[in-house]
Amino acid sequence: ESVKTVLTSPENRILIKRMLIKCADISNPCRPREQCIEWAGRISEEYFAQTDEEKRQGLPVVMPVFDRNTCSIPKSQISFIDYFITDMFDAWDAFADLPNLMQHLDNNFKYWKGLDERKLRSLRPPPE
Protein backbone atom coordinates (compact mmCIF):
# COMPACT_ATOMS: atom_id res chain seq x y z
CA GLU A 1 0.00 0.00 0.00
CA SER A 2 2.79 2.46 0.89
CA VAL A 3 4.51 1.71 -2.44
CA LYS A 4 1.32 2.65 -4.30
CA THR A 5 1.17 5.90 -2.34
CA VAL A 6 4.77 6.76 -3.24
CA LEU A 7 4.19 5.95 -6.91
CA THR A 8 1.26 8.36 -7.25
CA SER A 9 3.59 11.37 -7.50
CA PRO A 10 5.49 11.92 -10.79
CA GLU A 11 8.43 13.35 -8.81
CA ASN A 12 8.57 10.23 -6.66
CA ARG A 13 8.46 7.97 -9.71
CA ILE A 14 11.42 9.86 -11.20
CA LEU A 15 13.33 9.60 -7.93
CA ILE A 16 12.67 5.86 -7.72
CA LYS A 17 13.81 5.36 -11.32
CA ARG A 18 17.02 7.29 -10.62
CA MET A 19 17.67 5.25 -7.51
CA LEU A 20 17.05 2.01 -9.40
CA ILE A 21 19.54 3.02 -12.10
CA LYS A 22 22.15 3.96 -9.48
CA CYS A 23 21.62 0.72 -7.58
CA ALA A 24 21.94 -1.29 -10.78
CA ASP A 25 25.16 0.54 -11.62
CA ILE A 26 26.91 -0.32 -8.35
CA SER A 27 25.20 -3.61 -7.50
CA ASN A 28 28.15 -5.97 -7.89
CA PRO A 29 28.34 -6.82 -4.16
CA CYS A 30 24.69 -7.94 -4.37
CA ARG A 31 25.34 -10.61 -7.02
CA PRO A 32 25.92 -14.29 -6.31
CA ARG A 33 29.45 -14.80 -4.99
CA GLU A 34 31.14 -16.14 -8.13
CA GLN A 35 29.76 -13.30 -10.24
CA CYS A 36 30.74 -10.80 -7.55
CA ILE A 37 34.31 -12.11 -7.46
CA GLU A 38 34.61 -12.15 -11.25
CA TRP A 39 33.41 -8.56 -11.61
CA ALA A 40 35.44 -7.32 -8.64
CA GLY A 41 38.48 -8.67 -10.49
CA ARG A 42 37.50 -6.99 -13.76
CA ILE A 43 36.80 -3.66 -12.08
CA SER A 44 40.04 -3.82 -10.07
CA GLU A 45 42.03 -4.58 -13.23
CA GLU A 46 40.48 -1.56 -14.93
CA TYR A 47 41.51 0.64 -12.00
CA PHE A 48 45.00 -0.92 -11.88
CA ALA A 49 45.45 -0.16 -15.58
CA GLN A 50 44.36 3.45 -15.02
CA THR A 51 46.85 3.84 -12.16
CA ASP A 52 49.62 2.23 -14.24
CA GLU A 53 48.92 4.64 -17.10
CA GLU A 54 48.83 7.68 -14.83
CA LYS A 55 52.21 6.70 -13.40
CA ARG A 56 53.64 6.00 -16.87
CA GLN A 57 52.61 9.44 -18.06
CA GLY A 58 53.75 11.19 -14.88
CA LEU A 59 50.20 12.29 -14.08
CA PRO A 60 48.71 12.58 -10.59
CA VAL A 61 47.38 9.20 -9.50
CA VAL A 62 43.63 9.57 -9.01
CA MET A 63 43.11 6.34 -7.04
CA PRO A 64 46.39 5.49 -5.26
CA VAL A 65 44.71 2.61 -3.42
CA PHE A 66 44.58 0.82 -6.80
CA ASP A 67 48.32 0.39 -7.17
CA ARG A 68 48.55 -3.22 -8.30
CA ASN A 69 51.67 -3.75 -6.17
CA THR A 70 50.04 -2.75 -2.88
CA CYS A 71 46.27 -3.01 -3.32
CA SER A 72 44.20 -5.30 -1.16
CA ILE A 73 41.15 -6.20 -3.22
CA PRO A 74 39.29 -7.46 -0.13
CA LYS A 75 39.91 -4.15 1.68
CA SER A 76 38.75 -2.20 -1.39
CA GLN A 77 35.55 -4.26 -1.56
CA ILE A 78 34.88 -3.90 2.17
CA SER A 79 35.33 -0.13 1.94
CA PHE A 80 33.10 0.08 -1.13
CA ILE A 81 30.36 -1.91 0.59
CA ASP A 82 30.65 0.10 3.83
CA TYR A 83 30.78 3.51 2.15
CA PHE A 84 28.37 3.17 -0.78
CA ILE A 85 26.38 -0.04 -0.78
CA THR A 86 25.00 -0.89 2.65
CA ASP A 87 22.86 2.17 3.34
CA MET A 88 21.66 2.49 -0.25
CA PHE A 89 20.58 -1.13 -0.52
CA ASP A 90 19.08 -1.15 2.97
CA ALA A 91 16.85 1.71 1.79
CA TRP A 92 16.08 -0.04 -1.49
CA ASP A 93 15.26 -3.26 0.38
CA ALA A 94 12.91 -1.38 2.72
CA PHE A 95 11.12 -0.07 -0.34
CA ALA A 96 11.10 -3.16 -2.57
CA ASP A 97 11.75 -6.14 -0.21
CA LEU A 98 14.77 -7.85 -1.79
CA PRO A 99 15.81 -10.67 0.55
CA ASN A 100 17.89 -12.62 -2.00
CA LEU A 101 19.85 -9.55 -3.00
CA MET A 102 20.47 -8.63 0.63
CA GLN A 103 21.59 -12.19 1.42
CA HIS A 104 24.14 -12.04 -1.42
CA LEU A 105 25.37 -8.72 -0.05
CA ASP A 106 25.81 -10.19 3.43
CA ASN A 107 27.52 -13.33 2.09
CA ASN A 108 29.90 -11.31 -0.09
CA PHE A 109 30.77 -8.90 2.71
CA LYS A 110 31.63 -11.88 4.93
CA TYR A 111 33.69 -13.41 2.11
CA TRP A 112 35.80 -10.24 1.68
CA LYS A 113 36.12 -9.84 5.46
CA GLY A 114 37.35 -13.43 5.73
CA LEU A 115 40.05 -12.83 3.12
CA ASP A 116 41.06 -9.58 4.80
CA GLU A 117 41.26 -11.22 8.24
CA ARG A 118 43.66 -13.75 6.70
CA LYS A 119 45.72 -10.79 5.40
CA LEU A 120 45.08 -11.88 1.80
CA ARG A 121 45.07 -9.20 -0.89
CA SER A 122 43.75 -11.29 -3.78
CA LEU A 123 40.32 -12.20 -5.13
CA ARG A 124 40.44 -15.73 -3.80
CA PRO A 125 42.25 -17.70 -1.14
CA PRO A 126 45.19 -19.80 -2.33
CA PRO A 127 44.38 -23.39 -3.28
CA GLU A 128 44.79 -25.79 -0.39
Automatic annotation (TrEMBL):
One example GO MF annotation: 3',5'-cyclic-nucleotide phosphodiesterase activity
Q: Which GO terms describe its biological process?
A: signal transduction
Q: Which organism is it from?
A: Centropus unirufus
Does the record carry Flavoprotein as a key word? no
Under the heading InterPro entries, the entry gives: PDEase_catalytic_dom, PDEase_catalytic_dom_sf
Give the protein name, as stated in the record.
PDE8A phosphodiesterase
Determine if Signal is one of this entry's keywords: no
Q: Tell me where in this chain the PDEase domain is found.
A: 1-119
Per UniProt, the keywords (alphabetical) are: Hydrolase, Metal-binding
* Protein origin, superkingdom: Eukaryota
